[in-house]
Here is the input.
Amino acid sequence: MHHQEDEPSAVGRFIDRLEENAIALMLGIMVILTFVNVIRRYVFNASLIWSLEVVLMLFAWMVLLGISYGIKKNTHLGVDALTNVLPKGPRKGVLIVSALICVVYAVLLMKGAYDYWAPFAGLDVTSGRWFPTGFIETRSRAFMETDQVPMPFFLNFLADLINDGDSYSKLPDFVPYTMLPFACALILLRFVQAFIKVLRGTQHTMIVSHEAEEAIEDLTATHKQGT
Amino acid sequence: MDVVLLFVLIVGMLMIGVPIAVSLGLSSMLFLLMFSDTSLASIAASLFQAMAGHYTLLAIPFFILASSFMSTGGVAARIIRFSIACVGHLRGGLAIAGVLACMIFAALSGSSPATVVAIGSIVIAAMVKVGYTKDFAAGVICNAGTLGILIPPSIVMVVYASATDVSVGRMFLAGVLPGILAGTMLMITIYVMARIKNLPKGEWQGWGEIFESFRDAFWGLMLIIIIMVGIYGIPGLTGAIFTPTEAAAVASVYAFFVATFIYRDMGPLKTIDGQRNLTLLDRPIALVTAFFHRDTFATLFDAGKLTVMLMFIIANALILKHVLTDEQIPQHIADAMLAAGLGPVMFLVMVNIILLIGGQFMEPSGLIVIVAPLVFPIAIELGIDPIHLGIIMVVNMEIGMITPPVGLNLFVTSGVAQMPMMAVVRAALPFLAVLFVFLIIVTYVPFISTWLPTLMMGPEIIVK
Amino acid sequence: ACDDGEVVIKFSHVTNTDKHPKGIAASLLEQRVNDEMQGKACMEVFPNSTLYKDEQVLEAILQGDVQLGAPSLSLFESFTKQYRLFDLPFMFKNINAVDAFQTSEAGEAMKGVMAKRGLQGLQFWHNGMKQISANKPLLMPSDAAGLKFRVQPSDVLVAQMQALDASPQPMAFAEVYGALQTGVVDGQENTWSNIYGQKFFEVQDGITETNHGIIDYMVVASVDWLDSLDADVREQFLTILEEVTVERNADSTKVNEEAKQAILDAGGTVRELTPEQRTAWVEAMKPVWAQFEGDVGAENIAAAQEINAQN
Ligand code: NA
Ligand code: NA
Here is the structure.
């Protein structure tokens, strides 16, 4: 039906590859860590006590990072039965509204992600219930540690940076949680870009389209490869 | 009343083409900001914990990955060959073989759309070639593919187990008999239709071909054994070796090895079509390069991408669930239903209706995350077996997958068969009737679901 | 539901409401607060991990999204290492000694140690003394060597299992029954009420009555929330909480005895240790103390031993 009109630039393609490799690598490490732990337990009667926690962390990272990639590539599921039968004018109106809704979602999520993460970094959370209106002095939560993940020596500088010099015996929660505001910022960026494309008329849906021929071909190719 | 507003918001956003995940997430946030004291930070926490805090859900990326290696690595094609050798000579044989192949692949794969793609992309074209109509072929595979989530392993069962804290191992066992029953019902229906319409039949290729094709498919089929023995052990011989989640990871690693080093239809030992693939002896360095080969990365990435698509929805469904719980809505619904004197029979009818309607709009895993906490406490209170409830939910999800507007199987079938969605919907209709009959049987004969898990693992421990 | 103007106290926990010691105590607290603090405060209990798991509830309390939680003492590692005292094997002779320590000066002081990190300990709630079980008879500590035991993710418990030459395996509580049944792990340690409630006895050879440790919970709230309450509301609430604690803790021995009896009635095997066997277990596990003395404080260990001598 419609082709994405702007060809990705060299930088765009580079970032695509970067995101794709990051997703593949994280999944690969998750599988290998889990597999190795099974072998260690069954064959050697031992266990890597931190491996489960690291795998769960990577799982969260992979999905969070993948969401913004999915927005960029328009792979998220939705219902287009109704919008497809609308005449052209109203259809565009509805599309703009739906793109705007996505941006609102990302803005609220961004505030939530920052407010959740900030105390773990020893920073203040934002005031305001819906939108940030300033900062409130917040009790630091930088001392909170993961259950079992050892502290890698090269992160020891974090103790001085965020934890008033108190050294860590386990990896601080700050590290895994940092993906949250980072990924939410990317989600916001991608939704804003999509919204702009919608306004310009170069993007015609916010979801993977069920009727667009090439989308089907795309997905079939993916499924032949994957799933 | 507030709750009605919440659901109106969700459906409204879905209707205008907002992604499912965003519809669920934003509605929850708006509801929370308007009606409670809870902060946006708790929403972000839910989003992160949806993955980091749910050990069982880890099975999703792993099962998806195993299935990716299986279909990329030529396992599906070998299973089809074996199925045709077994039943291809019957009237309507190729269609029946397609169902059998879907059943076998379902025992390797945790997902329905994956099953449709793996089997459908080969069988539908083959059926058209020998004289079936494309509609008939697409309808058969679209339906049989739904067995992907009923025959274990199953992503939807994993999600149900995670939402209700029942045992994943039990759920998997519970799916075996219903899965075989549903498959058999489909095959009988096709056979009857084939006799009436005089559909094509294949040649009997002899026991040699059955043996030969089995030997060829053996390494793929071994995965079923690995998963089952690994999760349940062999009585008297070995205990179980891993949890269901770990089973999924082991399955991925095994599938990778089979695809790369035994079948060699992907990775460094693959050659251009028509030529004999290389062996490890030809290129021993492949033992190292296979891990970094672009086929390996591509498969990992595709599985990752699909995981993200599912988990984005599931995570936002979990946000909605968090908000509903925070407002104590499951409790109010349970109290109201029990006060109304609802019995088990009417309750199950209601569950079926809710899920069938919900299944029209939602992706199955997301729907289970939302509905399971609402109905689970009531079911326990009414003395319904949680495993039985789980199977009922799974069968409803199967139906949801082949009904518009959101039907993942319709979507991928229209892709692999190269036909419009609405044509697939019509093609799937006669077999949908079979699934409906099956749903009624499963709902009112709990024995089919609970017999095997009770036999192997003792009576259910979550009871009133 | 809560009326306008009432202080809303959300209490998130992970057990059922009517069988588990913590669940029963939480239900009683809910009932009394809602009856006696009409117009001032109201309590909503979220059981069965429906809102938060114990691993997440402390964050949620600091965040202000719930007000009360009662996680197991193993889960406060980020806030203080002092509570490791309660995980140390054979630190307390019996539940009465635990009780006496917790209500002593040393125990009262422990409630306040997290204040600088924003949490205030309010009351200790008992589950009970831990027993050990496996898929083979455990009479001497050497019987446990080479076996895989599911433990809570705590350094002390890991060290304790290593002291037995056993292999500690972290695992989600919900997975334990299936893992024991199928043999993914060989054994576990828990209180009678948990072993009965989760039916672990069905899938184990037997339970050895070691009383080697305790599972206790700390009812906590955030310092900021407590400070935000009117003095009379805070006073009344804390008084009710203390009364509920005294009442339920006194009953915990009975709950566990009943659970033990129920296990026997259901055909489970319970093994008692001879004094010699018991000494062997103590000798095998006690070296762990030295490893954590710095964390828990030598004075706390001394206080605990003094109380043991009196009880
Ligand atoms: Na399956
Ligand atoms: Na549907």
